[in-house]
Automatic annotation (TrEMBL):
It comes from the Bacteria. This is VOC domain-containing protein. Residues 2-116 form the VOC domain. InterPro entries: Glyas_Bleomycin-R_OHBP_Dase (IPR029068), VOC_core (IPR037523). It comes from Methylobacterium isbiliense.
């Protein structure tokens, strides 16, 4: 398993995108058709930074979650999370074959585990 991406919530999508493109050399690329605006920024062919329009009050953190993957078979991961007793949500990533598990930890920590169907 490896770090998959970092999800950043921002008020000014264009400013964040331009800053990250200029600073890191990432490229804007394909993004699923989410209802909330944002960008996926690619490095070496991988979408490593996801930006998302921030809608909460100012003062809340800008890193929403850290994602890891691939995490293997979704059914096996679900069973493991249930066995460990962790609180989590599960969803399908639109326009893909990825099942996402968002696991909630201490102090509001959110870790996303990305599993592909059929692996």
């Amino acid at each position: 398993m490896q770090l998959d991406h970092v999800n950043i919530h921002v008020y000014d999508l264009a400013a964040a995108r331009d800053f990250l493109v200029q600073l890191l050399g990432v490229e804007v690329g394909w993004r699923p058709s989410f209802k909330v605006p944002g960008d996926w920024l690619y490095l070496d062919g991988r979408a490593v930074i996801h930006t998302w329009l921030k809608s909460q009050e100012r003062g809340l953190g800008w890193v929403d979650h850290i994602a890891f993957g691939p995490c293997g078979d979704p059914d096996a991961k679900r069973a493991e999370l249930q066995r460990l007793g962790y609180s989590f949500t599960e969803s399908e990533l639109v326009d893909t074959d990825i099942i996402q598990f968002v696991v909630y930890g201490p102090e509001g920590m959110k870790i996303e585990m990305q599993c592909r169907r059929g692996t």
